[in-house]
Amino acid sequence: MTDPVNVPGRWEREFPLQTVIEEDGSADPARVTLTDAKALDLFRWMILSREMDERMVQLQRQGRIAFYIGAIGEEATVLGTVAGMEERDWLFPSYREHAGALYRGMPFVTFVCDLLGNAGDRMLGHQMPCHEAWAPGRFVSISAPIATQVPQAVGAAWAARIRGDDMVSLTWFGEGATSANDFHTGANFAGVHKVPVIMVCRNNGWAISVPRELQTASETIAQKAVAYGIHGERVDGNDLLAVHAATQRARVRAASGLGPTLLECVTYRVEGHSTSDDPRAYRGAEEVDAWRDRDPILRLGRYLTWRKLLPPDEVEALRAEARERIRRAVEDAETFAPKPSIQTLFQGVYAEPLWQQREQLDELRAAVAEDPRTSHPR
Amino acid sequence: MMRETRYIKAINEALSEEMARDENVFVVGEDVGGAGGAFSATRDLLARFGPRRVRDTPISEAAIVGIATGAALRGLRPVAEIMFADFLTLAMDQIVNQLAKARYMFGGMYTMPVVIRAPCGAGLHAGPQHSQSLEAWFAHVPGLKVVMPATPHDVKGLLKSAIRDDNPVLFLENKALYAMKGEIPDGEYLVPIGKAEVKRPGKDVTVVATSRMVHESLEAARILAASGIDVEVLDLRTITPLDREAILQSVARTGRLVVAHEAVKAFGVGAEIVAMVCEERPALLRAPPARVGAPFVPVPFAQEKLYLPAAADVVRAVQGVVSA
Ligand SMILES: Cc1ncc(C[n+]2csc(CCOP(=O)(O)OP(=O)(O)O)c2C)c(N)n1
């Protein structure tokens, strides 16, 4: 029986997919929110992000880092949103937004040290790779449990209300995360209290092996905003200009007291979920290939070419430059001692260590001293 | 006839056999279908039993356990997979306030044959939110059974028993053991819930161990044998219900007790076992008992080896108890 109420296409019409860059690379200047210089700069960032992800996966395969999860194919979503925010705004990442941390000033070498978990790791070797934080850039630590950052982003923005500052917070999550309780409680609270938060859903089609259709019966993610009484938008997540413009709009709304926005960025996870899975087990190559043609870097490249900002050899030069930066960062990171010190085990658990932690540190030191060969006979 | 299999394969066999045996058994969890589970425990089950009985769920652990509870009310026997035991926290209300108490609160009118499988434990460089051993939390909740198998043989036999049990069973697998090989019988067999097993007999000291620490304790026993200390390793296998008799009988033989688990030592299963022996049969103990467990910190990524309790710690604890 056809459903007389839930008519297919209804919500896609209500939340149309917004694009700015046309197929041929042209764009309506009235809708472009980035200067040429800024667009070129973000192009560089997207290339760096891509090259970095590819290189880090190689390092993982070589056994030099334990794990990696990247944003290949999702660069426009990550960089378009972060670039649409102000310096003073706080970012609550999921785990693919490393380019956002770097954009916010995390030194590249520090990021690589975090992947290695070595003595240069600002996370003191506590976190697994790709769970970096960068407090000076207001880029908050990544948490493994899905969607937990959503209410936290709402809380940080709520704090801005209490403190009377005009910061807005932004949080990223996948479409799979919209199934999690924390997404709903966060969106609901934000709606009730008109909290200045932007909730960015990287709708990349897959949550590990589970396709979007098995995650939600909603036709779009953006329409979920309706139920919470908040603003929702759906943009082409592979179109940097569209993502940037939508983020700026959402930021203006938030800052002027109109409350949160749920921003759905439609993109695609071109690679496996992480270095831990093989996507060939659950999806076909045709689907992936179709999306490769819609690559966000090619897309922005076409716009820059149309603007006559990108000479033919420029992309290759930018890639080479990015690779050199990555090579140097890895080289510098590998000069640190391979492991953080023993006391890092006990640092940061409490503001002050407890008596048993002090004793346990002494015991551990004694055990290591007893058998320095293996650092501990294990 | 015995044959060799891996711990993870033994789990897969148990699921497959129980699903074939009983139509009411079904599997729910994240990525359990086409992907066959994050660690491949449910491999091929979708192809064999179809989507009605093997269901990928949206990402909500609370929903997974809640749905299992609701289906159990209707007489089904759900086996829920939580991808990492760390994420049991996202389903705590459904587990602790609902599932564990449902039979009680409904005056015993319903049984709750739900199994929640979850991989626990560190050793795979997975950091503070993918590596925890939280069994003590669940052992503290009346209404739940808590099982922690250490070998391919036991994991298969215990999972089959858990699925047939009419109580909610929290089934904590150790992901560092998934690749481990061991002998299992060819034919059907069960391992009863609530029964510990002596994995190595000895006369000088009892080491009660759980999960991965069983193997570390066996290694410690080999090391200590060289210096003439004869260690008995008792694999607890089930946390709740605790096999009090097996523990007391072993301590009666050896007169000394060490408990070894991977979870933090503070407020752990070790404390319960030591307290139980001290309360019930203090005269059995010729020396004060000792506990081996992790330091009171989250599981680190980089210095995981330093953090993890291992054979060396058991050796030290046994030496301390023996020389006391
Ligand atoms: C609470 C919780 N449950 C399960 C997982 C395991 N897990 C890690 S990533 C992931 C899929 C997330 O998909 P999505 O939110 O769409 O983001 P994507 O990875 O596609 O960017 C799952 C299920 C987790 N990390 N946390």
Structure, described:
The complex is a heterodimer of chains A (about 375) and B (about 325). Chain A is of the alpha/beta class and about 375 residues long. Chain A has two domains: about 325 residues, Thiamin diphosphate (ThDP)-binding fold, Pyr/PP domains (Rossmann fold, 3-Layer(aba) Sandwich), CATH 3.40.50.970; about 40 residues, no CATH class. Helix content of chain A is about 40%, strand content about 10%. In chain A, the strands form two sheets. In chain A, strands 1-2-3-7-6 form a five-stranded parallel sheet, sandwiched between helices. In chain A, α2 crosses α3 and α3 runs parallel beside α9. The N and C termini of chain A lie far apart (about 65 Å). Chain B has about 325 residues and is an alpha/beta fold. Chain B has a seven-stranded mixed sheet with strand order 3-2-4-5-7-6-12, sandwiched between helices. A five-stranded mixed sheet of chain B has the order 9-11-10-13-14, with helices on both faces. A two-stranded antiparallel sheet of chain B has the order 1-8. In chain B, β13, α9 and β14 form a beta-alpha-beta unit. In chain B, α1 runs parallel beside α6, α3 runs parallel beside α4 and α7 packs across α11. Chain B is globular and about 60 Å long. The model of chain B has no long low-confidence stretch (mean pLDDT about 95). At the A-B interface, α13 of A face α10 and α11 of B. The complex binds thiamine diphosphate. Thiamine diphosphate (TPP) sits at the interface of chains A and B.
